[in-house]
Amino acid sequence: MKVILSLIILGFLLSSNSWAVVVTGSGITKEEAINNGLREAVEMYTGALVYGVTDVENYQLQKDQIISASLGYVKNYKITKTSKIDNLILVTMDVTLSEDKITGILRDNIKLITYEDILKDYNNVEQRQDQIKKLVEMLRILYKRPVSEKYGVIYEGYEIKRIGATQVDVVLNTRVMVNPFYSRAYNEIMKNLNEGKDSLHNDVWLIGGKYRVESGRLVNNKYYISKDTNIPNIDRVDAQIYVNSTPVDSCRRYRDNLLVNFNYLELAKVFVNLPRMFMQGWNNEEMTLDGKYDNSALKKSKVIPPEGLPLKIEYRIANSKEIKDLANLKLTMRSCGDDNR
Fold first, then answer.
1. N or C: which end of the chain has fewer CB atoms below 10 A?
2. Over pLDDT 90: what percentage of the chain?
3. Which domain, by its residues, includes 21?
4. How confident is the model at residue 130 (pLDDT cuts 50, 70, 90)?
5. Which of 118, 150, 176 corresponds to the end of one domain?
6. Do residues 163 and 39 both lie within one domain?
7. What's residue 300's pLDDT?
8. Would you say the C-alpha torsion 230, 236, 240, 241 has a positive or negative sign?
9. Does 289 fall in a domain?
10. Distant-in-sequence, close-in-space partners of 157: CB < 8 Å, separation ≥ 6
């Protein structure tokens, strides 16, 4: 409650570019009266603020220190009236203080949260949240596009593998492509949504993208995305190759520019570390995972290069007449089990 009070008062005081007040100082001499009046002006400006954020035990000491340091930043003063009561001289003055410098002293001494700080944070938070909403909407639009706009397949020819009495088995030579515009847009959106975390957290999803092999090791960009964005599961696409409306390939999983192939033995090694990670989370420690396990479960996966990834597809025809049609096959990439596109 004290902090809230200080912020309200400070917001009022900082509503203009300069802070001026009329005060009356008293003293045995005129000089003493002027000094006491200036001190009164500074105390009016700083006193409530110091009280709002200072514990009672150290209140007076800290207040005195701040007022003493601030006295040097009186911009100017004008004596408007001088009078005398008994042995005291009274001096009425218009006093103008150097706000910025005194506020700097307050910040340095009591880590004061100013109205400008709050306004700046508010604007930053509002802008960031608006940006997140727009990025998530772009991601949803990207997610809803057909698989054929994300991944493509080029048909490069065929090989006859087995000729039977009633059927012929051939292998289709294909090349799987990733749409560079889709991949670029995906990674750019994820980069701007990235929380910048360097470790896993309960409120953050770890999502990958832009896979590559460096020094014989699979690495990729890692994006830490806040769970409250409720983004679609766009980092995983399950697709297969179709000829007309018939799938001719098994369902395969793609992650950005990676054709996924899990190594479950390596994945099991990761789970061995889960008890340790659980205890780290229980103790509010940073959860760590040994670097050697990074992407180890995906090490049999294949990065799709810009020129495409060669892929051989088994295909069966019923009779020799269909051999003539092999030259004109139209292959497309579709979602697994989707016969409507």
1. N
2. 37
3. 2-118
4. very high
5. 118
6. no
7. 81
8. positive
9. no
10. 172, 173
In a shared domain, residues 66 and 34: yes
- 137 with 110, same domain: the answer is no
Residues 80, 174: one domain?
A: no
The mean pLDDT value for 247-253 works out to 92
Q: What is the pLDDT of residue 198?
A: 60
Domain-located, residue 288? no
- In whole angstroms, give the CA distance from residue 221 to residue 258: 12
Is the domain of 147 the same as that of 254? yes
Q: What share of the chain is helix, strand, coil (3-state, %, to 5)?
A: 45, 30, 25
* Residue 312 vs residue 215, higher pLDDT: 312
Alpha-carbon Rg of the chain, whole angstroms?
Answer: 36
Q: What stretches of the chain adopt beta strand conformation (E)?
A: 19-27, 74-85, 88-97, 151-163, 168-178, 204-214, 217-226, 237-243, 246-247, 252-255, 258-260, 302-303, 309-317, 331-335
> Do 147 and 239 contact (CB within 8 A), yes or no?
yes
pLDDT tops 50 at residue 239: yes
Kindly state the average pLDDT of the residues 285-313. Answer: 74
pLDDT band at residue 155 using 50, 70 and 90 as cut-offs: very high
Domain total of the chain: 2
Whether 295 is in a domain gets the answer: no
Same domain for 28 and 99, yes or no, is: yes
What type of residue is 272?
A: V
Is 135 in the same domain as 104? no
Residue labelled with tokens 């909403």? 133
**What's the confidence (pLDDT) of residue 135?**
94
CA distance 56 to 2: 11
Rounded alpha-carbon distances, angstroms, from residue 180 to 31, 249, 308, 334: 78, 23, 11, 18
Q: Is the dihedral of CA 8, 12, 13, 17 positive or negative?
A: positive
216 and 152 share one domain:
yes
Residue 41: CATH number of its domain: 3.10.129
Residue 90 forms part of a structural domain: yes
Two structure tokens written together for 84:
């005398």
Residue where a domain stops, chosen among 118, 149, 165: 118
Contacts of 94 by beta carbon, 8 Å cutoff, 6+ apart = 20, 21, 22, 77, 78, 80
pLDDT in tens, 267-281: 455 555 556 555 656
